[in-house]
Design a protein that fits this description.
By secondary structure, this protein is mainly beta. It has one helix and six strands; from the N terminus they run ββαββββ. It has one domain. The strands form two sheets. A three-stranded antiparallel beta sheet has the order 2-1-3. Strands 5-4-6 form a three-stranded antiparallel beta sheet, with no helix packed on it. The radius of gyration is 15 Å and the shape is globular.
Protein backbone atom coordinates (compact mmCIF):
# COMPACT_ATOMS: atom_id res chain seq x y z
CA UNK A 1 0.00 0.00 0.00
CA UNK A 2 1.29 3.45 -0.77
CA UNK A 3 1.59 6.04 1.96
CA UNK A 4 -1.72 7.68 1.20
CA UNK A 5 -3.45 4.52 -0.02
CA UNK A 6 -4.05 5.82 -3.54
CA UNK A 7 -1.52 4.19 -5.86
CA UNK A 8 -0.51 0.57 -5.41
CA UNK A 9 1.19 0.04 -8.77
CA UNK A 10 4.69 -0.60 -7.34
CA UNK A 11 6.15 -4.01 -6.52
CA UNK A 12 4.51 -5.45 -3.39
CA UNK A 13 2.40 -2.30 -3.20
CA UNK A 14 5.39 0.06 -2.86
CA UNK A 15 5.43 3.24 -4.90
CA UNK A 16 8.46 5.44 -5.56
CA UNK A 17 7.66 8.92 -4.28
CA UNK A 18 10.95 10.66 -5.00
CA UNK A 19 13.71 12.01 -2.79
CA UNK A 20 12.53 12.81 0.71
CA UNK A 21 15.53 14.83 1.91
CA UNK A 22 19.24 15.47 1.57
CA UNK A 23 21.53 14.72 4.50
CA UNK A 24 24.48 16.94 5.48
CA UNK A 25 27.83 15.69 4.18
CA UNK A 26 30.28 17.22 6.66
CA UNK A 27 30.37 16.07 10.24
CA UNK A 28 30.46 19.08 12.53
CA UNK A 29 31.12 18.30 16.18
CA UNK A 30 28.13 19.29 18.31
CA UNK A 31 26.00 20.09 15.24
CA UNK A 32 25.58 16.86 13.28
CA UNK A 33 24.98 13.37 14.56
CA UNK A 34 24.77 9.94 12.94
CA UNK A 35 21.37 8.67 11.78
CA UNK A 36 21.40 4.98 12.69
CA UNK A 37 19.38 2.48 10.66
CA UNK A 38 17.81 -0.75 11.90
CA UNK A 39 15.79 -3.39 10.06
CA UNK A 40 13.09 -5.64 11.47
CA UNK A 41 12.70 -8.91 9.55
CA UNK A 42 9.35 -9.66 11.20
CA UNK A 43 7.69 -6.45 10.02
CA UNK A 44 9.98 -5.80 7.00
CA UNK A 45 10.45 -2.25 8.31
CA UNK A 46 13.40 0.13 8.51
CA UNK A 47 13.77 2.37 11.55
CA UNK A 48 16.01 5.45 11.66
CA UNK A 49 17.08 7.15 14.87
CA UNK A 50 19.71 9.54 16.24
CA UNK A 51 19.52 7.71 19.58
CA UNK A 52 21.89 4.74 19.38
CA UNK A 53 21.04 3.78 23.00
CA UNK A 54 17.41 3.22 22.04
CA UNK A 55 18.15 -0.13 20.38
CA UNK A 56 21.97 -0.40 20.71
CA UNK A 57 24.12 -2.45 18.33
CA UNK A 58 22.29 -5.75 18.79
CA UNK A 59 18.90 -4.15 18.50
CA UNK A 60 15.84 -5.16 20.51
CA UNK A 61 12.43 -6.56 19.68
CA UNK A 62 13.57 -8.04 16.36
CA UNK A 63 15.45 -4.92 15.22
CA UNK A 64 18.91 -5.52 13.74
CA UNK A 65 21.48 -2.77 13.53
CA UNK A 66 22.53 -2.08 9.93
CA UNK A 67 24.85 0.89 10.38
CA UNK A 68 24.85 4.62 9.83
CA UNK A 69 22.63 5.91 7.03
CA UNK A 70 24.21 9.36 7.12
CA UNK A 71 24.24 12.49 9.23
CA UNK A 72 21.47 14.80 10.40
CA UNK A 73 21.62 18.10 12.22
CA UNK A 74 20.60 17.99 15.87
CA UNK A 75 19.08 21.47 15.73
CA UNK A 76 17.70 23.51 12.87
CA UNK A 77 20.39 25.17 10.75
CA UNK A 78 20.03 27.69 7.95
CA UNK A 79 18.36 26.01 4.96
CA UNK A 80 17.26 22.89 6.84
CA UNK A 81 13.83 21.52 7.70
CA UNK A 82 12.60 18.97 10.25
CA UNK A 83 12.75 15.30 9.22
CA UNK A 84 9.45 13.92 10.53
CA UNK A 85 8.81 10.32 11.63
CA UNK A 86 5.43 8.55 11.48
CA UNK A 87 4.35 5.02 12.33
CA UNK A 88 1.42 2.94 11.12
CA UNK A 89 0.64 0.06 13.51
CA UNK A 90 -1.72 -1.60 11.04
CA UNK A 91 0.95 -2.10 8.38
CA UNK A 92 3.84 -2.09 10.92
CA UNK A 93 5.85 0.48 9.02
CA UNK A 94 7.67 3.76 9.66
CA UNK A 95 7.56 6.68 7.26
CA UNK A 96 9.96 9.63 7.14
CA UNK A 97 9.49 12.91 5.32
CA UNK A 98 10.79 16.46 5.21
CA UNK A 99 7.46 17.57 3.74
CA UNK A 100 5.15 18.42 6.65
CA UNK A 101 2.20 18.87 4.28
CA UNK A 102 2.10 15.15 3.41
CA UNK A 103 0.66 14.03 6.76
CA UNK A 104 0.92 16.93 9.21
CA UNK A 105 0.68 16.43 12.96
CA UNK A 106 -2.67 14.63 12.78
CA UNK A 107 -1.45 11.98 10.33
CA UNK A 108 -3.74 10.17 7.88
CA UNK A 109 -4.84 6.64 7.04
CA UNK A 110 -3.43 5.17 10.25
CA UNK A 111 -0.12 7.08 10.21
CA UNK A 112 0.67 8.55 13.64
CA UNK A 113 3.17 11.36 14.12
CA UNK A 114 6.14 10.39 16.32
CA UNK A 115 8.26 13.52 16.14
CA UNK A 116 11.33 15.02 14.52
CA UNK A 117 14.26 12.69 13.88
CA UNK A 118 16.68 15.46 12.97
CA UNK A 119 17.08 18.34 10.55
CA UNK A 120 17.89 17.88 6.86
CA UNK A 121 17.96 19.78 3.59
CA UNK A 122 14.66 19.65 1.69
CA UNK A 123 14.58 18.15 -1.80
CA UNK A 124 15.15 20.68 -4.56
CA UNK A 125 12.01 21.63 -6.42
CA UNK A 126 11.84 20.71 -10.08
Amino acid sequence: MSLLGKDTSGKNGWVYQGISAYLPVDQTRGTTTPLYVYFNTFSNDHFYTRNFNLLKRGGKFGWKFQGVEGLVYQTQQQGTVPFHRYYNAKVKDHYYTADWSVLGKAGKNGWVYQGIEGFVFPPKSA
